[in-house]
């Protein structure tokens, strides 16, 4: 009995450990005090208003959002057909591609950031530009799209696609009208995952950020290094709300448990 | 349609992969063995791997990563086991997964910032300990290795938990029932049945957490306030402040090689000792 209570308590503490930092940030973003305090003192929206008045934060929000959206969109266009080919055919070099896909999460992102900076500085005077950043983010997000869609393609089998072709649809028609609707949930889930990966990235982005166009996490990183106050807690809280929204949408399309199994 | 045209849609992917992933990494390698005049030298590697200052940073980085990996495994296993084997209600499981996964969707900046608020001298933990009288003055939890370790465990725990749950939920619960029928206690059946079957999940979780913590930058930089240096911070310094790209490249390449070795060890272990889903 005591063992059971004790193990319950341990599990509760562990989940608290996982949840606490985000809870603390959300709570302190409502504090009336001019410094970070938890539990918060009073309740106010003034830090959120301050963020909204500071256009540099809105600019960074918009910049990061646009960057993540663009990188994700391009990754979907490139990644979905790639996943289909990987699922349906065997070819020379397939093992290498699979190795890249399964290892991309483990490879040190900071090294990839260094690599992009060094590589592009051979070709352009200023590699800290939007399009280099977008290319980097495409490489970061592609594996997520391909991996989620690959699993879905394999689970789907190819009988429905073959049926479509037997009925006279060509390859492109089959892809648009049969394959795509069937794998839509995975594309959306993979896309949201990819969006998040781009949206939160610092290690690659920091090497390619121009000072006048700063992605939100990089701007926050530079700020938090020297300064912590309730205003930046409000910015953080806003990104946490967005994360929750993304998760709820993903959970709607594919159950989180399945993502966990992937 | 001719057979070869089937592979046409692969071209954009291969272009991106080769031009913007493989080539940039080769550039780093190439720069790392050049001196300022552009001729071959190993001086950067020798400097990095013999100078006591850099060796110490390397040592600290490995030490932190090992501690983080061990603790994350213990804590992650408990959570993963609870979610997959103990929790029965669908809703409770769902909430648990939201709690586990939602940190992944917020940046390491935000998550480390959360710990700065909690661990600071006026932070939540110190205030609480002061209030109950366990301590008379705040204990130092930030700007040191303890803080970095706590932050990294938190940041990397979801990866460990997810690689464990994916294996644990595929273990047939009837195996536990069979063990119980044979008179095994719950604990013995865990040691004899569940634990050996979950080794693939443990391996991939451990490798992932270890290599991600070796290369982590944001969390150590924010929580240590620059007072403790890890490898990624040195690389950033060389690349952006000291502008020694060759030396920065050599350090980057060492980091890359270490993670590739970890990856290969992982693949080797999974393939030879444990076939899919269990001991062969």
UniProtKB/TrEMBL annotation, chain A:
Taken from the UniProt entry, a GO cellular component term is: plasma membrane
Answer whether the UniProt record assigns the keyword ATP-binding to this protein. Answer: no
Query: Which stretches are annotated as coiled coil?
Result: none
Tell me, which GO biological process terms does this entry list?
A: transmembrane transport
Q: In what residue span(s) does the ABC transmembrane type-1 domain sit?
A: 61-250
* Keywords of this entry: Cell inner membrane, Cell membrane, Membrane, Transmembrane, Transmembrane helix, Transport
Q: Which Pfam families match?
A: BPD_transp_1 (PF00528)
Compartments where located: Cell inner membrane; Cell membrane
Has UniProt tagged this entry with the keyword Cell inner membrane?
Answer: yes
Q: What is the name attached to this protein's record?
A: Putative spermidine/putrescine transport system permease protein
From TrEMBL, chain B:
Ordered alphabetically, the record's keywords are: Cell membrane, Membrane, Transmembrane, Transmembrane helix, Transport
Which InterPro entries does this entry report, sorted A to Z? Answer: MetI-like, MetI-like_sf
PROSITE patterns per UniProt: ABC_TM1
| Residues in ABC transmembrane type-1 domain copies | 58-266
Membrane protein topology class: Multi-pass membrane protein
Principal place of residence: membrane
Q: Give the UniProt record's GO annotations in the biological process aspect.
A: transmembrane transport
Family per record? Belongs to the binding-protein-dependent transport system permease family. CysTW subfamily.
Protein name according to UniProt: Putative spermidine/putrescine transport system permease protein
- Which source organism? Seinonella peptonophila
């Amino acid at each position: 009995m005591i063992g059971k209570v004790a193990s319950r308590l341990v599990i509760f503490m562990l989940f608290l450990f996982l949840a606490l930092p985000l809870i603390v940030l959300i709570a302190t973003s409502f504090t009336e005090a001019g410094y970070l305090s938890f539990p918060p003192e009073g309740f106010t929206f003034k830090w959120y208003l301050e963020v909204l008045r500071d256009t540099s934060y809105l600019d960074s929000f918009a910049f990061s959002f646009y960057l993540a959206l663009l990188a994700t969109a391009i990754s979907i266009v490139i990644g979905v057909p790639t996943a289909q080919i990987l699922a349906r055919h065997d070819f020379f070099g397939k093992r290498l591609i699979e190795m890249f896909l399964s290892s991309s999460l483990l490879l040190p992102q900071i090294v990839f950031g260094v690599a992009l900076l060094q590589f592009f500085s051979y070709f352009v005077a200023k590699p800290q530009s939007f399009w280099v950043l977008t290319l980097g983010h495409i490489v970061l997000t592609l594996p997520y799209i391909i991996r989620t869609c690959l699993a879905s393609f394999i689970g789907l089998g190819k009988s429905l696609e073959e049926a479509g072709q037997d009925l006279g649809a060509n390859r492109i028609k089959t892809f648009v009208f049969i394959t795509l609707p069937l794998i839509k949930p995975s594309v959306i889930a993979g896309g949201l995952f990819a969006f998040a990966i781009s949206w939160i990235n610092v290690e690659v982005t920091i090497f390619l950020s121009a000072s006048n166009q700063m992605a939100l996490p990089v701007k926050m990183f530079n700020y938090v290094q020297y300064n912590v106050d309730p205003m930046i807690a409000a910015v953080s809280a806003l990104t946490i709300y967005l994360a929750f929204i993304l998760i709820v949408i993903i959970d709607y399309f594919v159950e989180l448990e399945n993502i966990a199994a992937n | 349609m001719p057979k070869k045209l089937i592979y046409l849609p692969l071209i954009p992917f291969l272009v991106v992969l080769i031009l913007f992933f493989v080539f940039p990494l080769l550039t780093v390698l190439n720069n790392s063995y050049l001196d300022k005049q552009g001729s071959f030298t190993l001086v950067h590697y020798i400097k990095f791997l013999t100078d006591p200052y850099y060796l110490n940073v390397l040592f600290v980085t490995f030490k932190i990563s090992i501690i983080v990996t061990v603790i994350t495994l213990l804590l992650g296993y408990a959570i993963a086991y609870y979610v997959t084997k103990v929790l029965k209600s669908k809703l409770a499981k769902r909430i648990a997964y939201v709690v586990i996964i939602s940190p992944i969707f917020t940046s390491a900046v935000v998550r480390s910032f959360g710990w700065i608020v909690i661990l600071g001298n006026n932070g939540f933990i110190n205030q609480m300990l002061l209030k109950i009288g366990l301590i008379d003055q705040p204990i130092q939890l930030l700007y040191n290795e303890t803080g970095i370790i706590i932050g990294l465990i938190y940041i990397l725990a979801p990866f460990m938990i997810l690689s464990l749950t994916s294996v644990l939920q595929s273990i047939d619960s009837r195996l536990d029932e069979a063990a119980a029928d044979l008179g095994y206690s719950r604990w013995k059946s865990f040691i004899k049945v569940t634990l050996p079957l979950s080794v693939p999940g443990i391996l991939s979780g451990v490798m992932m957490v270890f290599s991600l913590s070796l290369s982590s930058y944001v969390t150590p930089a924010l929580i240590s306030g620059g007072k403790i240096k890890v490898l990624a911070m040195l690389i950033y310094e060389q690349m952006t402040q000291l502008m020694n790209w060759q030396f920065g490249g050599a350090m980057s390449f060492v980091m890359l090689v270490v993670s590739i070795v970890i990856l290969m060890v992982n693949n080797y272990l999974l393939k030879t000792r444990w076939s899919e889903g269990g001991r062969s």
